[in-house]
Design a protein that fits this description.
CATH architecture of the largest domain: Sandwich
Distance between the termini: 22 Å
Shape: elongated
CATH class of the largest domain: Mainly Beta
Number of strands: 15
Strand content: over 45%
Order of helices and strands: HEEEEEEEEEEEEEEE
Helix content: 10-25%
Largest sheet: 5 strands, antiparallel
Structural class: mainly beta
Radius of gyration: 20 Å
Number of helices: 1
Strand order of the largest sheet: 4-3-6-7-8
Number of domains: 2
Amino acid sequence: MKTILKVTLVFAFAAFANTLFAAGNLSVNILSASAKKAIIAVSTCCNSNFSISVANEEGRIFYSKENLEPTEDYLTEFDLSALEDGKYTLKAVSQDITTERTFRKTDEGIKVGKEKTKLKPFFGYQDGILRCTYLNFPKENLTLYFLKKNQLLYSKELGKTFSVTEGINLSRLEKGNYEVILSAGDQEYSFRVDKE
């Protein structure tokens, strides 16, 4: 039992350190250049591929760009005149990291909100133990669900904890296909477990 606990703690620490380092790899900003123009700036700590988009509250995308060559810094001028007054989201995605900023467009220009970073959780299954590690940067309510054939077998409220490390012993379950879902605010992450 002590060995399993030590292995789980080492695993959790390694996943936590790798994820924490990755969180600083992507930053996105939008700066007002005038009432009709803005500058979109994306930076990465090392050359990376990423995609950016600007969407309204209904999810309609008004601007989308994917870089074809890895780069550290990207700047582009964005024409605000095509947008109606309202709230928009600028999103950048690179591998497992998503960073976004909301902004409100008015006749006078834009007002930019705080940066919000999300990382995909790490799921692993080995030797009958299911593991989930997640850094909850936006401090959203978290819930872990465990299902078989869309039927809920287990759920756990994790609250708004920043660092989540969960382990579930599945060794006594019968063979079959299972699904674990981590619900984080409006985002759900799933992982399939095939128990043989």
